[in-house]
Design brief:
Helix content of chain A: under 10%
Number of helices of chain A: 0
Number of helices of chain B: 0
Distance between the termini of chain A: 38 Å
Strand content of chain B: over 45%
Shape of chain A: globular
Number of strands of chain A: 13
Order of helices and strands of chain B: EEEEEEEEEEE
Radius of gyration of chain B: 13 Å
Order of helices and strands of chain A: EEEEEEEEEEEEE
Radius of gyration of chain A: 14 Å
Structural class of chain B: mainly beta
Structural class of chain A: mainly beta
Largest interface: A-B, 26 and 28 residues
Oligomer: heterodimer
Distance between the termini of chain B: 37 Å
């Protein structure tokens, strides 16, 4: 039973255009959401996060949107660059009385940005 | 700030052999995690430590996997005996224990069981 789903295994985008990566979750108790980027032979690198009290968080070219009613979040990358080509993982966790629970990951979406 | 250190980077063993992985978290990070990432999947939690106590080991196959975090800093993960399905990347991560804190991952150990 997958609690975090990334339904697109891959995405190809032209350099300079917008990349939109999507993620759905089923557990309404999740209250913290993160995106990680992973290059081959490296560990996942934290990219951006959002707590459930917000619906948008922005950091440079990266923006995460959260729609709690739809249990959906998305990552927007504008403008996309060839160096953004990587696997992107969506993750979620539940806070237990001030202590953060472990992260539940999706299967990832492989983004290819073509020059 | 030094990142999460893991060793070895790669390990090839035969089934039924044993193997151990080592992790040194970011200094000051009280929480340490071991994740297993099978090819084509997202990382899956094996065990979570808070200082040197276990917080969650519900998904750790305890008949063959064990982990410890002595003195609340370094940690080791052991598999004995290994099975073919244990072939995966084993990722260590650490985080601060306050509020919403992202996990910081090491580069992992790629284990191949033949």
């Amino acid at each position: 039973d997958q609690q975090v789903k990334q339904n697109s295994p891959s995405l190809s985008v032209q350099e300079g255009r917008i990349s939109i990566l999507n993620c759905d979750y089923t557990n309404s108790m999740f209250d913290y959401f993160l995106w990680y980027k992973k290059y081959p032979a490296e560990g996942p690198t934290f990219l951006i996060s959002i707590s459930s009290i917000k619906d948008k968080n922005e950091d440079g070219r990266f923006t995460v949107f959260l729609n709690k009613s739809a249990k959906h979040l998305s990552l927007h990358i504008v403008p996309s660059q060839p160096g953004d080509s990587a696997v992107y993982f969506c993750a979620a966790s539940q806070n237990y009385g001030g202590s953060q629970g472990n992260l539940i990951f999706g299967k990832g979406t492989k983004l290819s940005v073509k020059p | 700030e030094a990142g999460v250190a893991q060793s070895p980077r790669y390990k090839i063993i035969e089934k039924r052999q044993s193997v151990a992985f080592w992790c040194n978290p970011i200094s000051g990070h009280a929480t340490l995690y071991w994740y297993q990432q099978i090819l084509g999947q997202g990382p899956k939690l094996l065990i979570q430590f808070q200082n040197n106590g276990v917080v969650d080991d519900s998904q750790l196959p305890k008949d063959r996997f064990s982990a410890e975090r002595l003195k609340g800093v370094d940690s080791t993960l052991k598999i004995q005996p290994a099975k073919l399905e244990d072939s995966a990347v084993y990722l260590c991560a650490s985080s601060l224990n306050r509020g919403y804190s992202p996990l910081h991952f090491g580069n992992g150990t790629r284990l191949t069981v033949t």
